[in-house]
Amino acid sequence: MKKIILILLLVVSFSATYGQNKFQERQNKYFVEAAAKEYNLNEAQQKELTELRTTMVVAYGESQKEAKAGTITKEEKKAKNGEASKEFNNGVIKLTGKNYKELAPFFKRMREELKEVK
User: Fold this and answer.
1) Burial 25-45 (b: 16+ CB within 10 A, else e)
2) What is the pLDDT along the chain (118 residues), one digit of tens a residue?
3) Which domain, by its residues, includes 97?
4) What distance in Å separates the CA atoms of residue 39 and residue 97, rounded to the nearest whole number?
Protein backbone atom coordinates (compact mmCIF):
# COMPACT_ATOMS: atom_id res chain seq x y z
CA MET A 1 0.00 0.00 0.00
CA LYS A 2 2.83 2.38 0.86
CA LYS A 3 4.47 1.70 -2.49
CA ILE A 4 1.25 2.51 -4.34
CA ILE A 5 0.85 5.79 -2.48
CA LEU A 6 4.48 6.67 -3.13
CA ILE A 7 4.13 5.91 -6.84
CA LEU A 8 0.95 7.99 -7.06
CA LEU A 9 2.66 10.85 -5.27
CA LEU A 10 5.58 10.72 -7.71
CA VAL A 11 3.25 10.64 -10.71
CA VAL A 12 1.34 13.66 -9.43
CA SER A 13 4.59 15.52 -8.70
CA PHE A 14 5.99 14.88 -12.16
CA SER A 15 2.68 15.85 -13.77
CA ALA A 16 2.55 19.12 -11.85
CA THR A 17 6.15 19.95 -12.72
CA TYR A 18 5.63 19.13 -16.39
CA GLY A 19 2.45 21.23 -16.44
CA GLN A 20 4.25 24.20 -14.94
CA ASN A 21 7.02 23.92 -17.51
CA LYS A 22 4.48 23.89 -20.36
CA PHE A 23 2.75 26.90 -18.79
CA GLN A 24 6.06 28.78 -18.59
CA GLU A 25 6.87 27.81 -22.18
CA ARG A 26 3.52 29.24 -23.33
CA GLN A 27 4.19 32.44 -21.41
CA ASN A 28 7.70 32.73 -22.84
CA LYS A 29 6.42 32.11 -26.36
CA TYR A 30 3.71 34.74 -25.92
CA PHE A 31 6.24 37.26 -24.57
CA VAL A 32 8.74 36.66 -27.38
CA GLU A 33 6.08 36.87 -30.10
CA ALA A 34 4.75 40.13 -28.65
CA ALA A 35 8.27 41.58 -28.39
CA ALA A 36 9.10 40.48 -31.94
CA LYS A 37 6.01 42.23 -33.24
CA GLU A 38 6.52 45.34 -31.08
CA TYR A 39 10.23 45.78 -31.80
CA ASN A 40 10.56 44.04 -35.19
CA LEU A 41 12.98 41.36 -33.96
CA ASN A 42 14.54 38.91 -36.40
CA GLU A 43 14.78 35.13 -35.78
CA ALA A 44 18.20 35.31 -34.11
CA GLN A 45 17.01 38.08 -31.78
CA GLN A 46 13.89 36.09 -30.94
CA LYS A 47 16.00 33.06 -30.07
CA GLU A 48 18.24 35.18 -27.84
CA LEU A 49 15.20 36.75 -26.17
CA THR A 50 13.76 33.28 -25.53
CA GLU A 51 17.02 32.26 -23.85
CA LEU A 52 17.10 35.46 -21.78
CA ARG A 53 13.54 35.01 -20.58
CA THR A 54 13.99 31.31 -19.85
CA THR A 55 17.09 32.07 -17.78
CA MET A 56 15.17 34.69 -15.80
CA VAL A 57 12.20 32.37 -15.18
CA VAL A 58 14.49 29.55 -14.04
CA ALA A 59 16.33 31.91 -11.68
CA TYR A 60 13.01 33.07 -10.20
CA GLY A 61 11.88 29.47 -9.75
CA GLU A 62 15.12 28.43 -8.08
CA SER A 63 15.03 31.35 -5.66
CA GLN A 64 11.40 30.54 -4.85
CA LYS A 65 12.29 26.90 -4.09
CA GLU A 66 15.27 27.94 -1.96
CA ALA A 67 13.14 30.41 -0.02
CA LYS A 68 10.45 27.79 0.62
CA ALA A 69 13.10 25.31 1.76
CA GLY A 70 14.53 27.94 4.08
CA THR A 71 18.00 27.85 2.54
CA ILE A 72 17.88 31.57 1.71
CA THR A 73 16.25 34.55 3.38
CA LYS A 74 13.62 36.83 1.87
CA GLU A 75 16.31 39.44 1.32
CA GLU A 76 18.53 36.96 -0.50
CA LYS A 77 15.59 35.87 -2.64
CA LYS A 78 14.83 39.48 -3.48
CA ALA A 79 18.48 40.09 -4.37
CA LYS A 80 18.62 37.00 -6.63
CA ASN A 81 15.38 37.97 -8.37
CA GLY A 82 16.63 41.53 -8.77
CA GLU A 83 19.85 40.33 -10.37
CA ALA A 84 17.93 38.05 -12.74
CA SER A 85 15.63 40.93 -13.70
CA LYS A 86 18.57 43.26 -14.23
CA GLU A 87 20.31 40.78 -16.54
CA PHE A 88 17.08 40.20 -18.46
CA ASN A 89 16.34 43.92 -18.80
CA ASN A 90 19.89 44.67 -19.95
CA GLY A 91 19.63 41.88 -22.53
CA VAL A 92 16.33 43.26 -23.87
CA ILE A 93 17.81 46.76 -23.99
CA LYS A 94 20.73 45.41 -26.03
CA LEU A 95 18.44 43.45 -28.37
CA THR A 96 15.96 46.23 -29.05
CA GLY A 97 18.23 49.27 -28.91
CA LYS A 98 15.69 50.93 -26.61
CA ASN A 99 16.35 52.23 -23.12
CA TYR A 100 14.49 50.96 -20.07
CA LYS A 101 12.19 53.96 -19.99
CA GLU A 102 11.02 53.12 -23.51
CA LEU A 103 10.62 49.42 -22.66
CA ALA A 104 8.81 49.92 -19.33
CA PRO A 105 5.30 50.31 -20.85
CA PHE A 106 5.79 47.09 -22.84
CA PHE A 107 6.99 45.21 -19.75
CA LYS A 108 4.02 46.49 -17.75
CA ARG A 109 1.60 45.45 -20.47
CA MET A 110 3.21 42.01 -20.70
CA ARG A 111 2.94 41.47 -16.93
CA GLU A 112 -0.80 42.00 -17.22
CA GLU A 113 -1.27 39.99 -20.42
CA LEU A 114 0.82 37.06 -19.20
CA LYS A 115 -1.57 36.60 -16.28
CA GLU A 116 -4.22 35.66 -18.86
CA VAL A 117 -2.08 33.13 -20.76
CA LYS A 118 -3.33 29.64 -19.96
Assistant:
1) eebbeebbeebeeebebeeeb
2) 656 664 654 444 444 444 457 888 999 999 999 999 999 999 999 999 999 999 999 999 999 999 999 999 999 999 999 999 999 999 999 999 999 999 999 999 999 999 998 8
3) 28-114
4) 9
Q: What is the pTM of this model?
A: 0.77
| Residue 13 resides in a domain | no
- Interatomic CA distance for residues 93 and 106, integer angstroms: 12
CA distance 96 to 36: 9
Domain annotation covers residue 87: yes
Q: Could you give the number of structural domains in the chain?
A: 1
Q: Is 8 contained in some domain? A: no
